[in-house]
Amino acid sequence: MSSVTSATIVGAGIAGLTAALALAQKGITAHILEQAPAFEEVGAGLQLSPNASRILDDLGLIDRLSARWSEPDHILLSSGSSLAPLASVPAGGDARTRWGAPYGVLHRAALQAVLVDAVRREPLCTVTTGRRIETAEQARAIAPADILVAADGVWSRLRQAVPGALLARYSGTVAWRFLVPYGLAPPFLNPRTVTAFLGPQAHLVAYPLAESQAFNIVAIHQLAEAPPEGWSRQGDAMARKRLLDAFSGWHAGIRRLLNDAQEPLMWPLFECPDGAWTNGRETVLIGDAAHAMTPFAAQGAAMAIEDAALLAHVLADGTDSAQALRRFETTRRERVARVRSRGAFNRFAYHARGPIALGRNLVLALRGPQSLAADLDWLYGYRTPR
Question: Where does the FAD-binding domain start and stop, copy by copy (predicted)?
């Protein structure tokens, strides 16, 4: 019997909602506190790799998700200047066979809707909206519990409750996100693939969103100076110019895609340094609140989902909460560090230029699809202890 019977979760994003369901599956009640007055469609597309979808399947959500996502046949790397394919990793049915779970792409709002519906159906879960939480004491006063879970994102207010937790910092990159309806999409966008177009100091990712009948486009480029406070999320004329400048020399079709983008949203990318995630007693940070990372490995949502599953596992194993949280932090820190390293490698490889880019292309040309898939076994084949 676990010594933990209840948890208060601050934040109803992917991390918080998944944590509530995972805890409830272990018989632990979960009360979510969310600052928004209602759940709204926010964000853009996301990729759910098998290490994440496997957990969502264990929570009984895969059928509802499968009805709303696409399972691309391949993950493709292509040249941003010529559009020529550089490498391909099998997905689709191959992902289910090799890694035991699907690789799906969908709108973030679709995943949130499925999670919210499941939480509302779960008797051990409750949600209070419209409550902005600034301190751990405030959260405990509203919803007393054995454990306080801070799932309040990259700008977490509850980091102050964890000595040694570090503030988010600008990563030196910005992401532009927008949708292109299928009917208006250029022919080089393939509705059966996740495609990353690579170029010097920038890359662009495109994949289909079935429910939106549109491609999700994410254009990421390096920008040394941190964006000034108050930058519009739609970006001003200077920001749009910097975007196009970053993709100068790219294929004309991609430049046209960026130039014609309708209401693109600009997101400066922030990451959390490797600080503490728990106060060693009853408070723990998960998801972006603990380890926000840049999207170069497309693992931000997956790491939040893995956090939720492991947290529920360690809290339900009968040990005291302090020991359980230390175990959670130790186990997750090793895994997250490896994923961060993969993201750093991808950033270097994706944004390479000159002779390094030529060497990258040569190496990729010599690697077959199954060989490249094997390189991802540690990532996509990972199974969180249950």
Answer: 5-339
